[in-house]
Fold:
Amino acid sequence: MKLKDKVALVTGASSGIGKAVSLLFAGEGATVILTGRHLNNLKLVENEIKHNNGKAESFAMDITDREQINKTIKKIIGKHKKIDILVNNAGIAKWNSIENTTYEEFYEHININLIGYFNCIKELVPIMIKQKSGSIVNIITSTVKKTKAERVAYATSKYGQAGLSNAVHEDLKNKGISVVAVYPGKTDTPIHGLPEDDPRRKEMLKPEKVAEVVLKAALIPAEKDVKELSINPVK
Structure:
């Protein structure tokens, strides 16, 4: 088992990539801390993990709420004494042109997608520095590599995530902490809102494939100085 005795905190763990990562990590021996805004949905994932003899715990946690994050981390440290891995994954996606993007929509993307990632990293870094070890995986998007039209708020927040991940990587690479950004191409998750029989889903990545890359990223030692990994659908 690649993650035996590790404690991994996953944000946005109730569906999509976050759920796939949580199931995979648990299967590799980690105790997975499932976080998200809706506890009932997290409990479904927790039950699935436990049904397969894995270890998981669920916490309602809004990544825009620093106090909630702090309280959650204190509970985890109180019980497990450490957090080995952070997978930053929670976020939103609303696609609009500059003409149709409202101020509220733009600020919401920055607050959740960018500031939310920062909040989780900021709270966990002192713990990982004290441990002299840790892995932070920031799930971003291939949109950063090639931006399409009608992505104003979304793309801006994702470019911000990329800058944040790269900067934190440079800060921590000599302190035993690995920081890797994962750039998945279009992935078949609920965020797209496609019907079950939509043919476009066949052209997308499956969350399980992205999860495999996230696992690979989480296992990269800090001294390897790897900033990013990408995965795209096969055309």
User: Anything to note?
Assistant: Residues 103-131 form the longest helix (29 residues).
